[in-house]
Design goal:
heterodimer; A: 527 residues; Rossmann fold; six-stranded mixed sheet; four-stranded antiparallel sheet; 13 helices; 17 strands; 16% strand; B: 355 residues; mainly alpha; 2 strands; disordered C terminus
Chain lengths: 527, 355
């Protein structure tokens, strides 16, 4: 593939490992971003972002306009969702969602009326007049999440202001096949940079760096041109060599700053924040045009795709609609995301979500791995390509034998699941699958442990209480006996009759107090 | 089953790696055949057949898929290395015993490919060496120094019957032009040193020449060439042979400096005996070697140092096999202590100034 001759404007450092799979980007990056006819039915997954489910605020039968809020954030960790087109809410029900295991989840189903009519929008001509809180609120209410693939709600990422001095725009797009960011920059570099300026304004001016792989010469040119038009000379373009997975957040930070995000810390602890090209564009649209996030650029590609290219696709558009449009009947496999980190979609009646950056319609012998899995020969090829400097061969060994504590000791949780190890494995071992298995087991064990710890504490508290009650009872009996003995002594041997009466009275008295105390103790609340 | 990412796969395979290893031994094999006749090829054939039959039988007994595993090429590589390491006129049944033992007890009993602790070829070698020390140290003289060069029919006769076609004893084949029974250069030096000769005196012997000895220097150079192919193709981890050669160099240099009339030079050690075969083809067996980058260095260095120590002070003329097996034992520990620091676990040293 063609490489850019543009010299990086900042020093570029090395990351360990990495691979060079076939890029296959020219399949889709040759034509401008186009629009698609709107699907009849849109299925909007309420859990279409990282975090929690959004809460629907419309009901079946409601008429909605494009851009109208249909679901709110849970207030902590989720995002707003908007009607991607105008039409009627048909149902709010469980539907299959775009997930590797074909799970079902709550979705808002909208029947489009074909008019695609916008609701009232509220653009801001000069955001400099808005306060930080006001801008953040707009970003929040526009439902903006990271469009690089993780869909992390952007307002949360933008919350922390203190110590941040640099914004890195992630335009690396290192996964093969995907070209949505490339095309977006070629056509809308100016808008993307304006979005970045809004983010910069939130922090009272940041240094801004674009991190981009050298396999996107046209996008780099467009950036350079847009920068001149905007008189935005402080922007630095960091051109990095094409290598997977350079676009991972941690990897791109290492490439551009040589720093590593310490374990358990955030990029913000290094004074950095990173946002994807698409996210910057979405922020621009939300603030300057009042357009909430209702669609995204999706790369439709693969050998079985007749209409390869990039398209603006409203969220909730069913895969089947896209496959029909691309005449992908011959596809052997439909992958959402890239070939390295994406997953296979088997049910085509699911809607696209904010993370759907690419759909690969694989043709015969494309991305088909027919080798059988053999024994690990510890050749270490995986170790050589691991960008996190892990020992994948050892992690595999421990994951396979369920030695999870060992796997954790070998830093299993620093694995970013980029798949470089499995890509080079001569024994064709699905390594990432083993790591996911170990991670989910460890996570479940942790939850179980918390639960069992609580149960144990409760049990111990109960035993202690019972023991205490028993001790108190014994003490009371001892005291009663004491009273009886004293009474008998006081009465003396001279009046045996009196003594018998006194003893009986003491017994009654003792019994009374005992009943009373027992009632009390049984009312004692559970610990 | 849900097949998870990645979907793309580099077109490579274990079989490909194994075949590359075999291909890279060819220069060394040619050199061995040139100097010692086709006995080596017969060795390899006997070992290969034994290895494949044994592997198939054991896989069947273990109820494992025979076909998929048999043709991964690993048994063939083990056999090939055994064949290259054994002296050329060894009785056929010894090769069978050694190879079958290696495949059965060193590889399959541990769970097959990838699970064995010890290098199978080297265990076979050591087993034969301590069981049949005389035959195992009976190398032929290089063809140019042989009194009675051994032809093809004689070779077969020695291997399968124990004597030549005319019933002559194997001693006959081992006679050098000077009438003495020939030994390998390393063996020769060791015997002479034991008799009180100095290195300078020993060097006048016809078998000692050039880098090490007639024939052996070329064999080592040929294995070095093949080994470099493995390194360039990234089939073998470069740190291991680098470590072995560095270990040999450092240890022998130290001894050489203390008394260069008593101890062999580093160069002689490098190009004598099984050094290059060991460094590039045996120590690099990924299953039994250390698997971390630093660990591979330590593993190689250990082999190099132990080799020189045994060659100099031990009871055997060569020591690659012992050194490899000793270091195999240390691998779990080496691996444990050489775990690289994962991303985000290092302190940010030398980070760029604020951009």
């Amino acid at each position: 593939m063609e490489r850019s001759s543009f010299t990086s404007e900042i020093p570029v450092f090395e990351i360990p490992g990495g691979i060079h799979p076939k890029e296959n980007k020219t399949l889709s990056n040759q034509t401008p971003i186009a629009e698609l006819p709107i699907a009849k039915e849109l299925i909007i997954n309420l859990k279409g972002q990282a975090g929690k489910r959004s809460m629907p605020i419309v009901e079946a039968g409601d008429y909605v306009l494009k851009g109208q809020i249909i679901a709110k954030s849970d207030g902590v960790f989720s995002s707003y969702q908007h009607a991607p087109t105008s039409g009627t809410v048909k149902a709010i029900e469980k539907r299959p969602i775009a997930h590797a295991s074909g799970l079902q989840d709550l979705c808002i189903v909208i029947e489009s009326d074909g008019r695609d009519q916008w609701c009232d929008r509220n653009p801001v001509s000069d955001y400099h007049n808005l306060s930080r809180e006001q801008i953040l609120a707009r970003i929040f209410e526009s439902g903006i999440v990271g469009l690089g693939g993780a869909s992390f709600p952007s307002h949360i990422k933008l919350q922390r202001q203190e110590g941040v001095n640099t914004l890195i725009i992630n335009a690396a797009e290192c996964e093969p096949y995907i070209s949505c960011d490339d095309r977006l920059l070629q056509e809308n570099a100016k808008e993307v940079l304006q979005g970045a300026q809004i983010i910069s304004h939130l922090y009272h001016d940041l240094n801004i760096i674009v991190g981009i792989e050298d396999n996107k010469p046209l996008a780099i040119e467009a950036l350079d041109k847009a920068r001149k038009e905007l008189a935005f000379e402080s922007l630095k373009i960091g051109v990095i060599p094409t290598k997977y997975p350079s676009g991972g957040e941690k990897q791109l930070i290492q490439l551009l700053t040589s720093k590593e995000v310490p374990k358990g810390k955030l990029p913000a602890d290094l004074g950095l924040i990173m946002h994807n090209v698409g996210t910057c564009f979405a922020i621009y649209e939300a603030i300057l045009h009042g357009k909430p996030l209702v669609e995204r650029v999706v790369t439709l590609t693969g050998n079985a795709c007749a209409n390869k290219g990039n398209f603006k696709v409203p969220f909730g558009t069913p895969f089947s609609h896209l496959l029909d449009f691309c005449q992908a009947q011959e596809a052997t496999k439909i992958i959402m995301g890239g070939p390295m980190m994406g997953f296979e979609v088997k049910n085509f009646n699911v809607g696209i979500v904010k993370a759907t950056n690419c759909i690969i319609m694989a043709g015969a012998n494309e991305l088909a791995n027919n080798q059988t899995e053999l024994a690990c020969i510890r050749c270490g090829a995986c170790m050589e390509v691991c960008p996190a400097s892990l020992l994948p061969q050892q992690l595999y060994w421990y994951a396979k034998s369920d030695e999870f504590d060992k796997a954790e000791e070998y830093d299993l949780f620093d694995c970013i699941e980029c798949g470089a190890c499995a890509y080079v494995c001569p024994s064709n071992i699905p390594l990432v699958q083993y790591y996911r298995y170990a991670k989910s087991n460890i996570r479940n064990n942790r939850i179980e442990k918390v639960k069992s710890d609580k149960a144990r504490q409760r049990h111990e508290a109960r035993l202690e209480r019972l023991e205490r009650v028993k001790r108190e009872k014994a003490e009371r009996h001892r005291k009663a006996a004491e009273t009886r003995r004293k009474a008998a002594e006081a009465a003396g041997q001279n009046d045996a009759k009196k003594a018998a009466v006194a003893a009986a009275l003491a017994r009654v008295q003792a019994k009374k107090t005992q009943t009373k105390e027992e009632t009390n103790s049984s009312e004692e609340p559970e610990a | 089953m849900i097949l998870s990412s990645p979907f793309d796969k580099e077109p490579n395979s274990v079989t490909e790696i194994m075949l590359w290893v075999i291909a890279a031994t060819l220069p060394g094999l040619f050199a061995l055949v040139y100097f010692f006749g086709i006995g080596i090829i017969i060795n390899i054939l006997i070992a290969s057949i034994t290895a494949i039959v044994t592997e198939a039988l054991i896989l069947k007994l273990r109820k494992r898929p025979v076909k998929a595993t048999l043709f991964d090429g690993s048994a063939l590589v083990t056999a090939w290395l055994i064949g290259l390491a054994l002296p050329p006129l060894l009785p056929w049944w010894m090769i069978v015993v050694g190879t079958a033992f290696a495949i059965t007890f060193v590889k399959q009993v541990y769970g097959g490919l990838g699970n064995n602790l010890f290098n199978p070829a080297m265990v076979a070698y050591v087993l034969l060496l301590i069981s049949f020390p005389v035959q195992m140290t009976s190398w032929l003289p290089p063809s140019e120094l042989a009194q009675n060069p051994v032809g093809i029919t004689d070779t077969l006769s020695y291997i399968f019957t124990g004597s030549g076609t005319n019933g002559q004893d194997i001693i006959n084949a081992r006679q050098g032009i000077d009438g003495f029974t020939m030994a390998t250069p390393l063996d020769h030096v060791r015997t002479e040193l034991a008799q009180g000769y100095r290195i300078t005196e020993i060097q006048s012997s016809p078998i000692i020449s050039g880098l090490s000895g007639i024939g052996w220097q070329w064999i080592n150079l040929a294995f070095l060439l093949g080994g470099l192919i493995l390194i360039i193709r990234k089939i073998a981890a470069w740190q291991i042979p680098a470590g072995v050669l560095a270990g040999i160099f450092l240890m022998s240099l130290l001894l050489y400096f203390t008394d260069n009339d008593q101890y062999l030079s580093p160069l002689f050690h490098w190009f004598a005996g099984a050094t290059m075969l060991g460094a590039f083809f045996i120590a690099t067996d990924p299953v039994t070697a250390s698997t971390t980058a630093k660990g591979r260095w330590l593993f190689g260095l250990g082999i190099g140092i132990i080799t020189v120590l045994i060659r100099t002070f031990g009871g055997y003329p060569d020591a690659i096999a012992f050194a490899v097996l000793l270091m195999n034992m240390a691998v779990p520990m080496i691996d444990y202590y050489t775990k690289p620091k994962a991303y985000g676990h290092k302190t940010n040293k030398g980070a760029a100034a604020d951009v």
